[in-house]
User: Fold this.
Amino acid sequence: MEAQSLPAALALVAGGGAGLSPERRAALGASLPLVQRDYRFERVWFWGCIQGLRGAYYIAEGLGPDRAAPRSRLYSFNCLDWSLLTPATEEMLALAEQLKGHFQGDPSFEYSLAEINAEAAARLVQSGKEPVIKEEDRLVATIEQIDRAVGIVPRGAFVKTPLGSVHENRYFEGLSLVEAKKLRSYFHFTEPANLKNKTLLEKADLDPSTDFLDSLEHDIPRGSWSIQLEKGGNVVVLRSLLWLGLTFYHVPMTKQFGYVYFGTGEKNLDLPFML
Assistant:
């Protein structure tokens, strides 16, 4: 969610129980512009909150000119003091996916790899490193997992230039109400996977400047998204059933959209049995 429009955006997704106290909202309003200035980000998004046993991690993301480029991620315990997270590696993602249970709320907490992945632990021992993974690494890996799996945008909100960079579409005026109620009108804002498998006939109807991402209509498992009309039918809200706590909103015929996550950072592995 855009830092500048955060209070209004949080009000639009409040139907799912997501929200911040007035003190937290005020703290974010004061600290995020400073984060943008100090780290020289072009934009700062409030990503959400991951609840731990001892405390909550509040997450922000910093973006550069290319919106599809890797994002810088920061966390805070009080929404005032922010710490930069190291980028997630593929190894960190693989290990974090095997960790189960709630976060502790302590970034220095260490999980023993010997109990999770003996081979990975042995490789670390051979390279002279401790066979552990810190919660700080698990945190950034989980954020990356959620962004890849359920970080979404409306169709047409971003355009891809001939040079490959991605920018906001200044001509985007929002989806119509009819289109806003369809899963195919929303894209995963990450590197596409299914797009490469489309036939030439299927690609013929696509606009390469706007249809460069994977749509939600083929997500597996089917039924992993809930679409609802709220605020008297004026707001379209999508909720992920795979990553419980992820809520996306869009006000049709306007440029207002965004998503936020409030949850425990755990994937709903039981979803296929619930559908």
